[in-house]
Amino acid sequence: MTWEPERLDDQRHLTEGDPGGMLRAVAASAAQVRTGHRCAVESGVDRLAADVRPRAVVVAGMGGSALAGDLLAAVCGPGAPLPVVTVRSYQLPGWVGATDLVIAVSWSGETGETLAMASEAVRRGCTLLGVGPAGSPLEAVAVQSSSVYVPIPTEGRPRADLWLVATPLVVAAAALGLVRAESTVYERVARALEEIAHRCRPSSDSFVNPGKTLAMDLAETVPMIWGSSPLAAVAAARFASRLNENAKYPAMLGELPEVGHNQVAVLDGPLAERDIFADTATRTLRLVLLRDIEEHPRVTRTREAAVRAAQDRDVPVTELVADGAHPLERLASLIGLADYASTYLALGYGVDPTAVGPITELQARVSH
After folding, report:
1. Does any domain span residue 192?
2. Which pick of 58, 79, 123, 286 has the fewest CB atoms within 10 Å?
3. Of the candidates 25, 349, 10, the residue with the CA atom closest to the CA atom of residue 205
């Protein structure tokens, strides 16, 4: 597989090289926010406020559904009156009990780990909220336990439907008073994602298309993606996982200030070296910083020092700054662009962004 940037402006290649329609799926992000909000409201998640005052909120899920839990925790922020924890496993932690709210999220409604945790939550007497497709095994668990269930129309691709599975969680948290999110917030988020979709549309040339430009920055490098706040760290995790799944591309991720105690050492490693006399291009490190307006003042100093350290070593740096007043808007501004960039990176390499052969193979091996 070779990187050919001219592919990004070849409309025929963008169509034929994306048979699963990943670009179309990313462009539907705004619609997912509106649909997720509507489904949550119509399902009556506001009933949770009358039924429960939880000690903790535990989001049970895997993959993109689990990331929805991380997104929820970031949106609630450090000022939340109770912990919001995501569990990626077959079992709930021992401390989870009858005074806790467990939100089981599964795009397919059939995820084995999530079903196991949902059933365990019911046995322990937890309040359960389910989010998944109608008629699924997850809905059956919710119905049998008289729990609130949000049916969502999952017709796209699991990793492209983050906003569809995440938005109901934020609506539920708002009903419980964990975050302020009026209905106008969801519309602002949807409009922000629509704006990104317009700027990153396939017909927009590389020199004015931020999604294609970011893909070209990342090509032939090993990206080290850092978030400057817990919220930006969630976007970094999303970016790295999309690079893995869409472009089949490696990426490191971390959060400031923690990376200042470990990953920053990579700046003196072999991938940070550049051979200007080499006959062919060599893959080198690139520092990608996702910045948030709510970063701690000491983190700002650390970030600025890290950029200087990278530049002193001729390591290229890309900085993306979150935009928006509400934390959900800021996440959308980072994640929306990252989703496009990872898809364009795949297409620039001639890689089908939808196919995930090793994941399917691994799941098949485990199930037997």
Report:
1. no
2. 79
3. 10
